[in-house]
Each structure stands twice: as C-alpha cells, then as structure tokens.
C-alpha cells in the first residue's frame, strides 16, 4: 500500500509539473499575442450642444465623418447637451474650476476674459508651431482667418477654420410676409429699414424676432451693424474693451436698441434666441438676424420662403476667431495628438464645403444659400462681433437686466450707458 501511494505521489508530481509547464507556456503565448494586438482606439472627450430650437445635434456630420475616417485610431467621444450656447459657455467656466474640461473646446473666444485667463493659466495648447510646420494645414487657412486667431505676440491657441466665408451674420427675412405688406426687396439703407418696419407693422405683421437674454444676440447684431454705418461708430466697434459707453456712439447704440424693441413682441423681453427662432419660423415675425449656420436650421417647408440679405449699408458682422477651437493642455499626449488631427480635419472639411458651394449649380442651392453667396461676393463691409470686443459682465449680466428696462422706458439711453460703464469698473476689479 505504501509503495503504491509513493508511486501515486510521483505520478501526481510529474503531472503537476507538466501542467505547470503548459500553463506557463500558455501564459507566455498569451502575452505574446497581446503585444501584437492593435493599439486601443484613443478617446477624445468633447462637449457639443443640441440646438434647443431644432433638436439638431450641432457638428454631428463632422464628428461622424472623423470617427469613420479614423476608426480604430482616434474617436471623438462627444457628449451632446440640450442647452443654449450661452449655457454651454457658462458650463465651461464651472468645468474649468473643477478640472473637468473636455479635450477640445468650442466657443471659447466668445468669452474674452475667460479665454485670456485660460491662456494666463497655461490651460490651452499653443498651436502655432504645429500649423507652421504643417504646410498642408497652413495652406488651407485664409490669412485673414489665421491673423484673427493669433495673439499680438504671435501665439495661437485657437485652431482656425479655413475660411471666413461661413462666419458672417446678416438678416434672414420672410419673402411672403414682405409681399403681404407690398415690399418687394430687402431695404438697402437704414432709413429704408425703419420705413420697412413701419410698413410691416401697419399691415399687422411683427417686423423683428429679437430677444434680451443670452447677450441679446439678435438685437445687438442689428444695433451694432447700424452703429457701424458712421465712421465714428465703425471705429468704436473695432475697439477692444471700450473704456466708456457714455459717449456719442454708446448713446446712439442705446437709442437704436430701444427703437428695435418697438418693432417686436412683448415676449422678446426676458427670452433667449430659441424664442426668436420660433417666432420667425412660425410666421409671426418677418425678420431675424443670424449667421450662415442658420441656413442648416431652416425647416424644409420654409426653404422657398426664407431669404438672406446683408444688413442695410451692405454690412456683414464677422469675427472668424469665434469659430476657432482650443485644445486643453492637461490631457495626455495621445489625446492631444488626436485632437490636433481632428481640428486639422475640421479645417479641411470647412475648405471643402466652401469649394462645394462655389462649384454648385445655383439651381441646386436653396434661396438662402444663393442669397448668402451673392452677398458675400458683393464686397460687403465687415463689422466686428461685439461679443469678442466687450467685457463679459456687460454681455452676460448687464444687458439682460438693463435692456428690458430700456425697452420698457424705465430707463433712458444715458442711464443705459451709465450701467454699461458700471460693468467696465466691475470687470476691472475682478481681473
């Protein structure tokens, strides 16, 4: 019995050794296979908005095209949020404070003071060397666009789009409502514009879809374009962080804003752009200012009704730097490498889109696209966007409170400009 047990122990030991060898061999083989596997796809976090007016995911086609092109290498991991552009911008500030920013940031130049703080805190990747060393990428970018994104010392923190072609704002207008009032074309001067508003109103048609919240985007487009009709006003619009609004230009701007709100509805007060959008595309207002990007948001049933024109005086509001996207410096190198490739891809897509539109048969374009093309090629005067020139407190706090008071006659133009100057002082104290 004892000898058998000893034999069993020897056999068991041998078997155990064999099994251990097989196991180790298998393990080594597994390790070898693992090292030969394809590198894991790098995820690049990003946040984009869903337009509250249309339910459309902004930049969805760009994201899908990039992810398909670079499948298995890089993937834009997008979180789409249902909020206004203004809400998104405020969320950027909160995310910066909690170090939860996405790798790629949009709209950063719409927040001048926050943008400058991000640069000072070295939170943004400096991009000039990457573009300078990539001849293909640099050649895609119009010089005026590249220059608009650069800082005075030549640093670049905003990855430019290719062309200023898509960065312009003018006026969308309802041709059928104009016709009902006997108006056959868009007004060419500001005198004609105010007469047009009077005529529409006399026919029971609300002339303008504007709002006071979210930096009062629509109303301010009209007012700043009108201000730039004079040489003094045009110079004022070029000034970064004006040191006062209690001057001729500031008073004129306030008076224009007050006048604009006599041609809209009471719902315009304390409302954001989504309300204005709904007013226009329900046929309750005849005009709404916005940029090229709204062409994609025109409902199909409205494509034969909605037209596009420059502001009176052949003016377009354009600041290409507002379309520059930034990369957050604190991400790992592989994520930043993918982010660089993504924003270069965006530049190329932007260039291709312009070339496509310029080569299209005009009959294949919508009325608004044809109009936009004609306006852009019609030697317009470009007016800077106030959102890249004025302090953030004025835009985000003062306008929302003071503009309704101005519109309702609770304050006059002088008091409005005084409040604007208060925002300057508060802004300086917070820096």
Work out the number of β strands. 10
Helix content: 40-55%
Q: Structural class, judged by helices and strands? A: alpha/beta
Low-confidence stretches: 1-36
What string gives the helices and strands in order? Answer: HEHEHEHHHHEHHEHHHHEEEEHHEHH
Distance between the termini: 92 Å
Task: Supply the number of helical segments.
Answer: 17
Assess the beta-strand content as a share of residues: 5-15%
Rounded mean pLDDT is: 90
Give me a quick take on this structure.
The chain contains 17 helices and 10 strands. With about 425 residues, the chain is α/β, with parallel strands linked by helices.
Structural account:
The chain has 17 helices and ten strands. By secondary structure, it is of the alpha/beta class. The strands form three sheets. Strands 4, 5, 6, 7, 8 and 10 form a six-stranded mixed beta sheet that branches. A two-stranded parallel ribbon has the order 1-2. Strands 3-9 form a two-stranded antiparallel sheet. Helix 2 links the parallel strand 1 (42-50) and strand 2 (74-82). The longest helix has 34 residues, at 2-35. 41% of the residues are buried.
Record keyword descriptors for this entry.
431 residues; alpha/beta; six-stranded mixed beta sheet; two-stranded parallel ribbon; 17 helices; 50% helix; globular; disordered N terminus
């Amino acid at each position: 019995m004892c000898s058998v047990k000893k034999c069993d122990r020897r056999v068991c030991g041998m078997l155990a050794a064999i099994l251990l060898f097989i196991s180790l061999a298998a393990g080594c083989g597994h390790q070898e296979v693992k090292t030969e596997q394809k590198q894991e796809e790098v995820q690049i976090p990003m946040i984009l908005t869903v337009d509250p007016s249309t339910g459309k995911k902004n930049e969805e086609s760009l994201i899908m095209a990039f992810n398909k092109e670079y499948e298995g290498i890089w993937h834009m991991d997008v979180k789409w949020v249902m909020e206004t552009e203004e809400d998104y911008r405020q969320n950027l500030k909160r995310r910066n404070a909690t170090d939860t920013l996405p790798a790629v940031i949009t709209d950063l130049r719409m927040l001048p003071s926050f943008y400058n703080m991000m640069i000072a805190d070295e939170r943004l990747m400096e991009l000039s060397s990457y573009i300078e060393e990539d001849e293909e990428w640099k050649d895609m970018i119009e010089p005026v666009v590249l220059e608009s994104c650069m800082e005075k010392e030549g640093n670049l923190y905003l990855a430019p789009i290719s062309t200023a072609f898509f960065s312009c704002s003018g006026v969308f207008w309802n041709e059928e409502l104009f016709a009902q009032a006997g108006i056959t074309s868009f007004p060419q001067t500001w005198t004609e514009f105010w007469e047009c508003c009077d005529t529409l109103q006399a026919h029971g048609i609300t002339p303008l879809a504007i709002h006071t919240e979210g930096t009062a985007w629509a109303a301010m487009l009209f007012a700043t374009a009108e201000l730039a009709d004079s040489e003094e006003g045009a110079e004022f619009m070029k000034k970064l962080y004006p040191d006062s609004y209690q001057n001729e230009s500031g008073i004129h701007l306030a008076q224009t804003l007050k006048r604009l709100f006599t041609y809209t509805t009471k719902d315009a007060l304390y409302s954001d752009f989504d309300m204005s959008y709904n007013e226009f595309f329900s046929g309750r207002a005849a005009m709404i200012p916005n940029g090229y990007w709204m062409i994609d948001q025109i409902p199909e049933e409205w494509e034969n009704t909605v037209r596009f024109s420059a502001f009176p005086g052949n003016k377009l509001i354009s600041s290409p730097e507002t379309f520059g996207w930034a990369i957050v410096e604190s991400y790992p190198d592989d994520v930043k490498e993918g982010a660089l490739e993504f924003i270069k891809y965006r530049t190329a897509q932007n260039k291709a889109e312009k070339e496509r539109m310029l080569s299209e048969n005009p009959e294949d374009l919508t009325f608004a696209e044809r109009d936009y093309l004609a306006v852009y090629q019609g030697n317009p005067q470009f007016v800077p966007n106030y959102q890249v020139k004025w302090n953030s407190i004025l835009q985000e706090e003062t306008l929302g409170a003071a503009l309704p008071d101005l519109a309702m006659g609770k304050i006059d133009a002088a008091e409005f400009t005084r409040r604007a100057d208060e925002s300057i002082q508060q802004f300086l104290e917070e820096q």
